[in-house]
Design goal:
alpha+beta, 5 helices, 6 strands
Length: 150
Amino acid sequence: MKRIKKSTSGNTGESKYNVGYGKPPARHQFKKGHSGNTRGRPKGRKNFAKVLQDVLDAPVNVRQGTRDIKMPAREALFRRLWNAAVRGEPKAMQNLIAVVGKESIFALESPETESQPVVEDDLAIISDFIERQGAEFFEDFHVGNRKQRS
């Protein structure tokens, strides 16, 4: 059986307050306008991702030919990796492929494929394909538009 204490404050006019789990005595509760974390989170504290981003965005001097060029460290690292891969270093090639694949830099669509509308010939080809494959496989697909799912 749960044991519940009744708070006994000096004021007898107060309503009785049951003290128990999640109900601390009134004198131990937070006062109005105050919280338990008075100092709060320190302002300006940076996490690892923010520090890394700041380091990669910091400008560095890079010698190109006979002159120095200022560029972000991120760009300088990528140019160095690119040049090493072009020279034929296998590790650099492998790392470059991993970076390019992760960032999908070269996955750009040509403008002509984006804006071409679907014409009647395309709809005929699609409906013929659906008929040959079987309608039950393409239940959610309707030629011309898609069925709204609820």
